[in-house]
Amino acid sequence: MPTFQFEAIDAATGRPIKDVVEAPTEAEAQATIRAMGYMVTKLKAQKAKAAAAGSGKRKPGRTFAFGGVKGKELTLFTRQLSILQDAGLPILRSLKVLAEMQKPGRLKNSLLDTCDEIEGGATLSEAMSKSPKCFDRLYCNMIRAGEAGGALEIILRRLAEFMERAQSLKRKVKGALVYPIVVVSVAVGILTFIMIKIVPQFKKIFDDFGSELPAMTQVLIDISNACVNYWYLIPAIPFGFRLIIKAICLINYGRFGWDLFTLKMPIFGQLVEKNIMSRSTRTLGTLLSSGVPILEALNITKETSGNMMFEKMFQKVSDSIRDGNAIAKPLKEFAVPPFNIVAMLFWTLFCPGIGALLYLTKYKKPVVDDLVVNMVDVGEESGELDTMLYKVADTYDEEVAVLTESLTSQPLLIIFLGGAVGFIVIALFMPLIKLITDLS
Hints:
The chain is mainly alpha-helical. The protein is 70% helix and 5% strand. It has helices at residues 26-35, 71-86, 91-101, 106-119, 124-129, 137-149, 152-209, 215-229, 233-249, 252-264, 269-289, 294-305, 308-322, 328-333, 341-350, 355-362, 370-382, 385-407, 411-439; strands at residues 3-10, 16-22, 38-46. Strands 2-1-3 form a three-stranded antiparallel beta sheet, covered by helices on one side. The protein starts with a strand and ends with a helix.
């Protein structure tokens, strides 16, 4: 389809506009521009540039890059692009300015490719969709909605705010998980050193005196012997457990079971569930407020949820909406997880003895609270569903912040470490005290 480059004046604000539009004829291009709220001052057909594909050579300005783009870099780029658009700079010029500012890598390559696509007649959303490793479906759909509504700068600002909130929440969750992981890793290292190096020395002393050892000391020595003889199992067990989880998740039913377990697991389950709810409701609210159709918004939210339970729930809600229903009722109905044998097995491994019983008592608890369902219901009735979803996301953000703070001062972790150290000290000193008493 031919592409026309135009200059116009925004009828609402009076500021000049320079951009491109696709249309079969010049008359239809003018009609499209007027429908966007602009008064055309200059219009000319744009020649599509010949593609450089097939040459096998890297395009100028590109460097070798692998992987995706860091969330922090993409968030900063989106904020800068929204500022340039607010200032009235043409979109192509804005992209070229920002591309020159980027360090060599995936984002710079994608921006240069986007500029080439736009010069060739593509719209911004179409050009960005050609670089899926940089701009995902959520990003491209919001850009497309902004182009259709003639409010690209507003959509970019909203998208930047959404990404900044998501990055902030991600940093909080990571910060909360770092503390217990580091503490447990250091504790395991110290305890392993004690079992392999320190306890055997005490065992030699006890053997030389030939006295009968207390039960606690004998248990400690048995554990020490196991650590000395099978030390390689200490790093192999967590590594092997991770491989088993990956193998199980290759099957949909197995992945569903693991995702259900992560939502209900002790200590971290609430954090995972509230984090997903916060991200999902904010994503859905941002898409709806940007003008993305409800079914497309639900599909994008499903893909970004990162948990199979939520994916199935959003899919069933989407199917229910196609049948003419509202959101609140199917959201409440399909938020109850089904029974999954894999999830029960993980519970049994995590909590030996009582894991299966705990799972049977907790598995039917909905992943969506009644508060969320009621707020969605009110939002539908009042026509402000996006506003209500934002409020739900803000509420869950606060709850995640409280949970992350509690994880950094986890009493169960302190009690466990204190108990382990106390057990070792008592087990070693009990026979020593007995030996000193006998000698005296």
